[in-house]
Amino acid sequence: MRKRRSSNFLLIVFLFLTINLCVAGSVKFDLVIKNGRLVDGSGNPWFYADLGIIAGKIAKIGWIDTSEAAQWLDAQNLIVAPGFIDVHTHVEGGITRIPTADNFIRMGVTTIVTGAVGLSTGLIYVPGTFAKTDEIIALAKTAAQCKGVYASHIRNEGNEVVAAINEAIQFGERAGLPVEISHFKISSKKLWGQSQLTTSLIQQARERGLQVTVDQYAYPASSTGLETQLPDWVLDGGRDAAMARLREAKQRARARQIRAREKIAAPRRRHSQNDLAAGANFSLLGSRPDSRRLRRRSRYFRRRESD
Ligand SMILES: [Zn+2]
After folding, report:
1. What is the pTM of this model?
2. pLDDT tens, 129-140?
């Protein structure tokens, strides 16, 4: 797991802002960010304030006249926050491929520090799907001894999401370490609207004294690999084993039956014109570069979505 720290309180202002230049008056600040709602990262509620910046560092928080600014940004109706500490961004492409880290910056992640800072799990993915609660608690206790955190893709974000959140909370309470839940959401359509319940589980745990936090995608969608749509037993043994099973008609039929029983919509084989017109259920944003078939498909989606 990687942890990213904001080293010098770099600021992220969301959406595109017009930079205003001011040449008159007694200029004190290189940049002033005005009228934004400040979320200072300390856990406090937001508050309105302007920020004055000199040489890349915050020099003043409060009311600042634009005449004191060499340039200023109007952040009205926007959030002004420190660069995020994010354990898991889903950005496409690593720092070696994009050394300027534009893909991280656009997500609000300003600094990357690598190294072990705790225990992370992906209980929706192989092999995490096969890990039992007690096994993870034992590992989390070791992380707790080193003052680590526990960060997780929880076991289920669909029909069993409540149980999965409770399990994540249980890891923190039984092992004695902070919990971070990735991509907090409800992916099962029939449970949409239940976020009051799921967020109340987090709130109640916090009231009991557990340091538990959540994060969300920066876009209104879910993002993961299609293999999460397959039953766990199909994935047992890794991807090659899964592909071998799916090549067998009987096993494939069994997997399909289980999906139907769970009433979780499996991805469609291909999108029809009507699906796309109504808003496709999923988009293929990445593919294996060595697969010509998938590359063709990727182009198909891009073409349709740009229509
Ligand atoms: Zn993720």
Report:
1. 0.70
2. 899 999 999 999
